[in-house]
Amino acid sequence: MEEPVQVGPWAAEAFVDYERLLKIFGAKPLTDAEVSHLERLAGGSHLMLRRRVFYSHRDLDVFLSMYEAGYRCALYTGRGPSGSTHLGHILPWIFTRWLQERLGLDLFFQMTDDEKFLHEERLELSESNSYAYENALDLIALGFNREKTHIIIDTEDIGYLYSIAVRIAKKITYSVQKATFGFDDSTNVGLIFYPVLQMAVSFLPTELYGEETYVLIPAGIDQDPYWRIARDLARSLGYPKPSQIHNKLLPGLGPEGKMSSSKPETAVYTTDPPEVGARKIMRAFTGGQPTVEMQKRLGGNPDRCSVYKMYEMIFEDDDGRLRERYLSCRSGALLCGDCKAELASRVQRFLREFQEKRERARDYVEMYLLRTKFEAPKRR
Ligand code: TRP
Q: Which of 236, 173, 244, 159 is CA-nearest to residue 204?
């Protein structure tokens, strides 16, 4: 029997078999035609598209046609604020920001301080709530547009979601909820209700604009179970089905697994002092050989290397240079120490610049909050 893949809303690995995941979740691989369509509408290309960091979708084609036909469209993504932000978290946000700019779309961003409080034994509500504000600084530092970015903090902005949520909730039985999210009799009832709130945001833009709005959700495929139910119910509730585009997870700097806060030495946080970030890279596990002599003779394996993946997924925009790096690693000409040192200096520079913007963001977080711009929708 095959090993079960640990990817679901509350468990995920990296270097997973993405082909298999697609089959399990029933999503579609992103085709060249869809990528070109998006690039044409965006008037350019993004490394995460070209290299299929975003690699699968549901109804991206429908979303793009609706966008092109002039229908109202919006983006939606979110974050469970259970701690500090690391590079694995901002990876999909970098792409989302590009989409926002290139397609001129509003972004609805959900901070699920309720979800993380309910899910994490150790977390007080006041803590997940203050992480929501801390994490918002990271979002803002990435350069999202202030007029077009609307942050929803669940415990504070529930009035925007609740009337949508109860209409969803009435259509979902406990048995569907159990089967979809793996809940059992010992799950607290807060968590059993929570998914409805995550679904509700995908319908919120239609309510706020008072017009059918097509929503695209960039997210990890682990979030797919939410949208599966949301899509099933959408039409019966009077909303378009939300579309999704899924990203691969950034590997952690250790020998296995995604970049994760449960292994802080394998994660580069946006708040790590730049030299600490650089040091973490220098200590990263690579796809290299145990000795220099063997590396020169046998070459390394960039396909299983957390350092190479950082270049590929975030830090090397130039396709030619990336290819060169790949080949010289394979041939043994490039040694891990040199490869890491170069990444470390890029990461260090990134952190330095990012942290300046992140500090400045404290002065205008308010302007990004949904509640400072929209009235809660009327009950239907
Ligand atoms: N459940 C997500 C998490 O744990 C947070 C989230 C809420 C989200 N809404 C979303 C993620 C929409 C992606 C898209 O991180």
A: 159
Structure confidence at residue 109 as a pLDDT band (50, 70, 90) = very high
| Domains recognised in the chain with CATH numbers | 7-253 (3.40.50.620), 264-360 (1.10.240.10)
Q: Whose CA is nearest to atom 6 of ligand 1?
A: 78
Q: Write the DSSP string, 307-335.
A: HHHHIIIII---HHHHHHHHHHHHHT-S-
CA nearest ligand 1 atom 3, residue:
80
Query: What pTM was estimated for this model as a whole?
Result: 0.95
For atom 1 of ligand 1, the residue with the nearest CA is 80
Compute the distance from residue 289 Cα to the ligand 1 centre, in Å: 38
Rounded CA gap, 183 and 101, in Å? 38
Q: What is the pLDDT of residues 343-378, one digit of tens each?
A: 999 999 999 999 999 999 999 999 999 999 999 988
